[in-house]
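Can't paste images in this forum, so I'm doing it all in text. The chain is below; anyone willing to post the predicted structure tokens underneath?
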Amino acid sequence: MISYILIIGVIASVLLEAAGILGLYYSNGNVDIVYAPEFSLKGSNFFVYAAQVIQGLLLGKWTPITVLTFGLLLLMVTPYVRVVASAAYFAAEKNTKYFFITLIVLIILTGSLLAH
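Text version of the structure:
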């Protein structure tokens, strides 16, 4: 089950990226991406940025750039979700050695995503 998290996350990300590129091409006639400050991580950590992107999608801001951004966001969060699932699995199996190893990896990943 845990191995499917990466597969599903990557496939969903590729589909979102393809939809975003097609949407960009059909709306602009090209695939040129212009820098927009609202899609940058400046001044916020990854989790705040992810919440802003998801909030925008929930409010109906389904532009091609937003779909591309969500695809990249999904690709970035997929390994994190896998580590969380692994920690939960090892805790349920009462495998303390691998639980604590996975917990250390989770702490490092969380710290790096908070710092960026």
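The mean pLDDT is 88. Residues 2-115 form one domain.
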